[in-house]
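From the shared-data thread, chain only:
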Amino acid sequence: MDRNAFVHVMNEASGMLEAGDAAGALARLTAFDDALGEQPDPQDYGWIVSYRFRSAFGAGDYAQALHIAENGPARFAADIPSGSMATMYSMAVEAATQLGRAESAVAMADKCIALRRQVGTHDEVLMGAMTACTLLGDLERFDLATRYALLLIAEGEGAEKYRAYGYYALCAALEHKVGDGVFATLWSGRDWLGSVDNEFAREARAYLDNSLTVRDLLAQQQPAAGAQFPPPAGAAGGLPLPPPTSPAAGGVPLPPPGGPATGGVPLPPPMGQGDSGIPLLPPNPGGSAPISLPPPGPASVPIPLPPPDGVAAVPLPPPPAQPNPFGGPVPGLEPADPPAPQPFPMDAPTQYLPVSGTFTVPADLESQPAPREALLDALHGAGHGTNLVHGQPPADQCAGGETADALLAAGRPGVAAAAYRALIDEAIDSGHPDLLIMGKAVLGLMMALIFDNRVGEAHAVWIDESGATAIGIQALEHGQTSVHDLHGYRLLEAYFHALAVTDRDSALHAVNTIMNSCVDYAFEREREVVPGMINNWRRHLYELFDDNPPPDIFGPVEAAEARWGQPVPLGPLYWSRPSPWVVDWL
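Structure, as tokens:
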């Protein structure tokens, strides 16, 4: 394969994807792939396969995307970095559900979870289970979603939002008359649900306290003595509750109290598919020998795809948020044997999510926020009663924020944006908006809008001088959130400055100033995200100069790269995962 032609095609396809022309990118990559007559370099060919998958997914050709994920390349062997493979397989879960192929979604999700146990974090295991549970629930395949809900409950000790979501999902299964055997697990968590303050826990507890389905099941379990029902939600006192019964065969037992679960808990079989214990994860299709997984460690080591003989592809985990099929462009790659575009590993506490898609550029996009008057002082003087951060914010609002973050991480940016707006309204309506709540909610809102390809709306929030969201911007800029979230906001600022269509010199100065500060922070506090910061900086400069920047413009970026000690290849934009909704820096 001609290396120069490969680089040209990859840059061309990447540009098409970022411009929203997934169908064009798919046609270009397919034509190039079909013209290959012999085995290319496996790593280079891996990028062709990966981008064909992304293009097919972005073009809505879910059947082709799922076929690539399930079967690997059609003709040649390929090596794909595990970060890209992780994205491919998590997207395959959604592709399968888009096609109504629930069983294929289960197969993809199980492979994701199995590999995440090997190379990922425990949080990523739970996120994979939550994503599968959510997508299968959307298909109303609660019989299949239940196994992931049980995993969240069993392994969610210390991760309240995931564990509570597991109980919440069991409520849906029970209400749809699927898997009565899970009722014991659901009922046994009733007290725990009452002690946890997040939206999923509140909904699940309310269901247990008020559902006629639950009352009928309790009555069936104690027909002689008569069931003692819990009082209505909010009522005091009440009759004693019956003790939880033993989980049915095939259920996943809850971890013992007092600490997190030790080791992974295997997935139970789908409801109605076996009743003798908990089987191991299903083998590869066709009875073929499973492809060995890499040892635990960084998730950036290339993992080979299987040869084109029908063997299932290497299972890899989903990313911590909805996969976006459009990676960043790869401008600037020279034809003289440059490296192919490389994604960054998805290491906690951050996540790497590309931004893409078309959007209508607002008329004032070139404008930057003018220096605001001291809004915080004005608010106090006007009697708005904002609360400077001195202690913990309202617990119920924190729970709402954690729920919104979970929705964003689960790949629901549109719903998450609505949740952040509702939280902002709730804080304002209280008469005493807490500034941590306002700052984090506005930060989350802008991120959700960007991930939902509503960049114009996110920019409007950023430059708004009068609305409630302006309080959140001021809270971010006046140190009312964690330093981690402050730099997450700085990344958004740099992104917006890079979109400027006038006054390029001012925008360039802003981007360099902000990103230099972000890189310094990363070197001091979060070294694992230094490559992401450098990558963003370089990509913003390309954006400012319409992918044709003068060579000397990269001096500050190259200095940061030299400080890092190795080249940082271009990849998707890096975004910082929000910190918890708690004050831990005072």
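The first strand starts at residue 79 and ends at 81.
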